[in-house]
Amino acid sequence: MLNFKQLHHFWNVARAGGIVRASERSGLAPQTLSGQIAALEASLGVTLFRRQGRGLVLTETGQMVLDYAEEIFRTGSELEEALLSRSAGRVVPFRVGIADVVPKSIAWLLLAPSMALPEPVRIVCREDKLERLLGDLAIHKLDVVLADSPLPANMDVRGYSHKLAESSVSLFASAALADTLAGDFPACLQQAPLLLPGNEAAVRAPLLRWLEEQRLTPRIVGEFDDSALMKAFGEAGAGIFPAPTLISAQLCRHGELRCIGELPGVGDSYYAIAVERRLSHPATQAISRAAMPPRDG
Predict the structure, then answer these.
(1) Transmembrane ranges (predicted)?
(2) What is this structure's pTM?
């Protein structure tokens, strides 16, 4: 059976970058820490560290064990905080980062289940570029990040992507602009004003590919990193803009916007990115359990 005391000593040494530094931080003798790690390696039948010069570096197996140890002790810390908050009658904070390319209506749909938990939750939302949000996630300033793509492979951030929802994409325009479009969809897009999401939006590339396949050349009149700002320009009649079909009814409910048409083969997905392989925060678990099934419309 895994000895969690030994695992905790290993975790501290790995985080400190060596036995001597871990000894200074913990007040335990280096010999004690070495003995605890040796006992853990013996019980697991693996080598966790290898010597490099005068120091120690993690083996590949050691890195895997560290990943699990991080998750185990972080979960334990969150459990302790949650129990203390409950006993003190405090509201548990739920710190969410929302990538600025995620439509606000989608963010609300995904986060709504966290507001209906039996235990009160205070949701704290922060919107920013995905890269900056993932940096805050890595240092535990955020509990989860909502994005339109999984964790980028080229980012030096340890995390896990949990798919929550997917939707096809449709094009929308103000009623006044829609009335000026000539012909049926998609031919009506030729030379029509178009608003594009920024380079970081996952839907941008497939949308441009679809237009190329259809041999359509609309006039690109604006590009937006912020989906809400793009929608505001669209509502004002500046151009046609893409949005998830999932929120079509919500966008068009007042009659100020119209759905011009759905884009076959163009879709968008939404993810909860967390530092845990198994979600532990009750609010994150709630949004994962309520994740919408895949759909095209």
Answers:
(1) none
(2) 0.64
